[in-house]
Amino acid sequence: MYLFDVHVPLTWWTGLGLLVGGVASLLLWRPLAARTGWHHGWTLVSLLLLSSTLALTFGPGAELRPPTLTQCLPTRASKLLRSLAQLAGDLENSLNIIVLAPVVIAVVLATRRTAYGVWLALLLPGVIEVVQTQIAGRVCSTADYLANALGGVLAAVVTGAVLRRRRAFPG
């Protein structure tokens, strides 16, 4: 399926991932929120958004062979700089900047901690890219990691700043 001229591999795997993730979220959110003291509603939203993100990124694509991890890692500084330059290069990278924003915002709102959102924004894209090296038809990329992490960190910092401002000036 194409969304804004960007290929999004929606398959029965995606549907299964959404179903399993949704059920797991509904089973886990109350105990997790009770144990951690996090906001109940935002904990549920966080889990649902996280499971949706994973379902959309872990479905197989059209290629038969998965890439290797070494294909994803920049081996030279010039390759890393090229990945950084790609961030603003096309619509797909622009969408990659905002793809983690909803789940990161929900995590910051659930936990009331900016640091949790920042850690999620830095770790989740790495996990996604590494797992994609094992999924046929998916491509791991340094540019995708950088775009996801940048957007997620910005979302966490802005959400944290808004929360601090609201606490400082209630009403």
From TrEMBL:
<feature type="transmembrane region" description="Helical">
    <location>
        <begin position="41"/>
        <end position="59"/>
    </location>
</feature>
<feature type="domain" description="VanZ-like">
    <location>
        <begin position="94"/>
        <end position="158"/>
    </location>
</feature>
<feature type="transmembrane region" description="Helical">
    <location>
        <begin position="118"/>
        <end position="139"/>
    </location>
</feature>
<dbReference type="Pfam" id="PF04892">
    <property type="entry name" value="VanZ"/>
</dbReference>
<protein>
    <recommendedName>
        <fullName>VanZ-like domain-containing protein</fullName>
    </recommendedName>
</protein>
<feature type="transmembrane region" description="Helical">
    <location>
        <begin position="12"/>
        <end position="29"/>
    </location>
</feature>
<keyword id="KW-0812">Transmembrane</keyword>
<keyword id="KW-0472">Membrane</keyword>
<keyword id="KW-1133">Transmembrane helix</keyword>
<feature type="transmembrane region" description="Helical">
    <location>
        <begin position="94"/>
        <end position="111"/>
    </location>
</feature>
<feature type="transmembrane region" description="Helical">
    <location>
        <begin position="145"/>
        <end position="163"/>
    </location>
</feature>
<dbReference type="InterPro" id="IPR006976">
    <property type="entry name" value="VanZ-like"/>
</dbReference>
